[in-house]
C-alpha cells in the first residue's frame, strides 16, 4: 500500500479497499520502524487518526477532494496551530504555534491527514540537515550519507515511504538538493506562487514553499492545493492557478531545451555529467530539440546569494529576542544580557555565522559594497535567465556537483558546503520555478536532473518531468529495506 | 579581506548574538572566507544597474484600511516565559 501513488490511493479509498484510518496507521507503523532515519521531529498520531476518521466520513459522503484521507507530512517550518513548530532550532523547541500557515490551512481544507512535522536544517540554513538541533537525517539509500538540506527530513520521508508526499521550502536549493540526494521529485515553484504566510522566514525575497513527492504526477496534485494568491502574504502573486494535472500527457515534440555550458563545465563530476546526458538523450527521443547556450552571470550567483540571504536572515531572525516566545536564558543580568545570551545559547553555529555575515553586510560603510552590489548582481543574473528563456522553453542541468556526501564530511568547512549550491541558487535569485527529478544512480546513490522553467510555467515543468517518468523508472526505485 | 577578532565581537554585539570567547577566532576565519567569496562580485561592472529586491519587481499592494485582526494577547502571551498583568516581563531597564 505504501508504494501507491496519490491517484491510486485516492481510488483505493473510494473503492473501500482501505480506509484512511488504516492507511494512516500503516504509515505510523513505518515511521516507528524506521525511526533511526530521524526524518520526523514531531509525530502527531492522535490528531492524524482523528482527521483520518473525519476523512473516511467525508469520503463516504462523496464529492471529497482528491487529497482527502491521504497521509502527508509537513516540513517543520510551517506553523501548525497547537502543534510544536521548531524550525529545527533550540530557539523554538518550546514553541507551540498559535496559528496555521496558509499552506497548512489549504491542506486541511483539502482533507489531507498530517502525520507530523519533518526534520530540517536549523531555520533552513544548511545543505545537509546537519545543522538541525534534532540531529541529522540519514539518507535511506545509504545511512552513512546525508539526506541533503535544508528539507532533508521531507526528502528522506518520501524516499523511505514514511509519508505519501511532503512539503519543503527552497531558498537556495533546499527542495531540489535533498530531492536529488534521496532520489525523489522536488518542485520549487516561482517566487510568490505559494503563500509564505506562516512559513518561518529565512530570506524573504528568496523563500518559496513547494512539493517533495515520488513523481511529477503527485507533485501536480500537491501544487494544485498549495498554489494561489494569499492576501496575508504581501509578496504573493495574484495570478490564476492553472490545472497542473491537465497537461501532464502533452507531447514534448518540438520542446526547446537549453543546456547552459556553464552547468556542464569541466568542474562537473564526469559520472554525473554522463548520467545527465543520458537523460537528455531520452528527451531527444521524446522529440525535444537541444540547444547549447551560455549564461556568463551564473558564476556570480554564490557571492550574491550569500550576501542577500545573510542580510535578510539577520533582519528576519532579529525577532527571536527571548521575550515574547521561544528560548529565554536563565537569570539574565539586564536586558542586553537577556537578548545576547538567549540568542547565543539557542542559535547554532551556522545560523550565527549567517546572522553575523548579514549584520556586517548591512552595517554602515559596507551596505553599498556588499548588499547593494549583490542586489545589482542579482538583476544581471535574472536578466541572463530572462534572455535565455526567450530562446528556449526550459533549461536543464545538474542539481548538485556530487551525489550525497558522508555525514560529517563537510561540517568543518562551511565554504565548501556553500560552493556545492552552485547549480541551484541562481534560480532563487531570479525567482524562477525549477524541479529535480531522479535520473539514475552512481555507486547506488541517486542523481537528479534539474529542469528550470519560465515564470509561472510550473505546468510545463511538470509536463516535461512527467513525460520522462513515463519512459523511465528511476523515480520508482525504492531504497533497499524500505 | 579579513576580519579581526575585535570586528567579530563588534558585529556580534550589534546582532545581540552571544559568542563564546574560544570561538571568536574561528568565526573570524569563517567570515573572512565568506568575504573572500563575495569580493568576486567586484570584477563585475554594475554601473547603472537598478538593485533587485524582488524577483517580480511588483509594486507594494495596498489594502482597504479595515480591521482584519482581532486582539489575541492572552493567547499569544501563553508562549512567553514571563508575563504579568498582560505585560511581558524583562529585567529592569531603569534603576
Question: What does this 3D model show about the protein?
Answer:
The complex is a heterodimer of chains A (482) and B (95). By secondary structure, chain A is an alpha/beta fold. Helices cover 38% and strands 14% of the residues of chain A. Chain A contains 15 helices and 13 strands. The radius of gyration of chain A is 21 Å and the shape is globular. Chain B is mostly helical. Chain B is built from 3 helices and 2 strands; from the N terminus they run H-H-H-E-E. Chain B has a two-stranded antiparallel sheet with strand order 1-2. In chain B, helix 1 packs across helix 2. The model of chain B has no long low-confidence stretch (mean pLDDT 93). Chains A and B meet through helix 9, helix 10, helix 11, helix 12 and helix 13 of A and helix 1 and helix 2 of B.
Features of this protein?
heterodimer, A: about 475 residues, alpha/beta, Amidase signature (AS) enzymes, 11-stranded mixed β-sheet, two-stranded antiparallel ribbon, 15 helices, about 15% strand, B: about 100 residues, mainly alpha, 3 helices, 2 strands, flat
Amino acid at each position: 500500500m505504501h508504494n501507491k501513488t496519490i491517484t491510486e490511493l485516492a481510488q483505493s479509498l473510494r473503492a473501500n479497499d482501505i480506509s484512511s484510518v488504516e492507511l494512516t496507521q500503516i504509515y505510523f507503523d513505518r515511521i516507528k520502524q524506521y525511526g533511526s532515519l530521524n526524518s520526523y521531529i514531531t509525530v502527531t498520531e492522535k490528531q492524524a487518526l482523528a482527521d483520518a476518521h473525519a476523512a473516511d466520513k467525508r469520503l463516504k459522503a462523496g464529492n471529497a477532494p482528491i487529497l482527502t484521507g491521504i497521509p502527508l507530512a509537513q516540513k517543520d517550518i510551517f506553523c501548525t496551530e497547537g502543534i510544536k513548530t521548531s524550525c529545527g532550532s533550540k530557539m523554538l523547541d518550546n514553541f507551540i504555534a498559535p496559528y496555521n500557515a496558509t499552506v497548512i490551512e489549504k491542506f486541511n481544507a483539502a482533507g489531507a491527514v498530517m502525520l507530523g512535522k519533518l526534520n530540517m536544517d536549523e531555520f533552513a540554513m544548511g545543505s545537509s540537515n546537519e545543522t538541525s538541533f534534532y540531529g541529522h537525517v540519514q539518507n535511506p539509500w545509504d545511512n552513512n550519507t546525508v539526506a541533503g538540506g535544508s528539507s532533508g527530513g521531507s526528502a528522506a520521508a518520501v524516499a523511505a515511504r514514511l509519508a505519501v508526499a511532503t512539503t519543503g521550502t527552497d531558498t537556495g536549493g533546499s527542495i531540489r538538493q535533498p530531492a536529488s540526494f534521496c532520489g525523489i521529485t522536488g518542485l520549487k515553484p516561482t517566487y510568490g506562487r505559494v503563500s509564505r504566510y506562516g512559513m518561518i522566514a529565512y530570506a524573504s525575497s528568496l523563500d518559496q514553499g513547494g512539493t517533495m513527492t515520488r513523481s511529477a504526477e503527485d507533485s501536480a496534485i500537491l501544487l494544485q492545493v498549495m498554489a494561489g494568491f494569499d492576501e496575508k502574504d504581501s509578496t504573493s502573486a495574484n495570478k490564476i492557478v492553472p490545472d497542473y494535472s491537465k497537461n501532464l500527457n502533452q507531447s514534448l515534440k518540438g520542446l526547446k531545451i537549453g543546456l547552459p555550458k556553464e552547468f556542464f563545465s569541466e568542474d562537473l563530476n564526469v559520472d554525473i555529467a554522463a548520467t545527465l546526458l543520458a537523460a537528455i538523450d531520452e528527451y531527444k527521443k521524446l522529440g525535444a530539440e537541444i540547444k547549447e547556450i551560455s549564461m556568463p552571470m551564473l558564476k556570480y550567483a554564490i557571492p550574491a546569494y550569500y550576501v542577500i540571504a545573510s542580510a535578510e536572515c539577520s533582519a528576519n531572525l532579529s525577532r527571536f529576542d527571548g521575550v515574547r516566545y521561544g528560548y529565554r536564558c536563565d537569570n539574565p543580568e539586564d536586558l542586553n544580557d537577556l537578548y545576547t545570551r538567549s540568542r547565543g545559547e539557542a542559535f547554532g553555529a551556522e545560523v550565527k555565522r549567517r546572522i553575523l555575515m548579514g549584520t556586517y553586510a548591512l552595517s554602515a560603510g559596507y551596505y553599498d559594497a556588499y548588499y547593494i552590489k549583490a542586489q545589482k548582481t542579482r538583476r544581471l543574473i535574472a536578466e541572463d535567465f530572462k534572455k535565455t528563456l526567450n530562446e528556449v522553453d526550459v533549461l536543464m542541468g545538474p542539481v548538485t556537483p556530487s551525489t550525497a556526501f558522508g555525514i560529517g564530511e563537510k561540517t568543518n568547512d562551511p565554504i565548501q558546503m556553500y560552493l556545492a549550491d552552485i547549480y541551484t541558487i541562481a534560480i532563487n535569485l531570479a525567482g524562477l520555478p525549477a524541479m529535480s527529478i531522479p535520473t539514475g544512480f552512481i555507486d547506488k546513490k541517486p542523481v537528479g536532473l534539474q529542469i528550470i522553467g519560465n515564470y509561472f510555467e510550473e505546468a510545463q515543468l511538470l509536463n516535461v518531468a512527467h513525460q520522462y517518468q513515463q519512459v523511465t523508472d528511476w523515480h520508482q526505485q525504492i531504497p533497499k529495506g524500505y | 579581506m579579513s576580519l579581526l577578532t575585535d570586528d567579530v565581537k563588534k558585529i556580534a554585539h550589534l546582532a545581540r548574538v552571544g559568542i563564546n570567547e574560544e570561538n571568536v577566532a574561528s568565526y573570524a576565519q569563517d567570515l573572512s572566507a565568506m568575504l573572500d567569496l563575495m569580493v568576486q562580485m567586484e570584477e563585475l561592472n554594475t554601473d547603472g544597474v537598478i538593485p533587485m529586491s524582488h524577483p517580480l519587481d511588483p509594486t507594494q499592494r495596498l489594502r482597504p484600511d479595515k480591521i482584519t485582526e482581532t486582539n489575541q494577547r492572552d493567547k499569544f502571551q501563553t508562549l512567553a516565559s514571563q508575563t504579568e498583568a498582560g505585560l511581558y516581563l524583562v529585567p529592569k531597564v531603569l534603576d
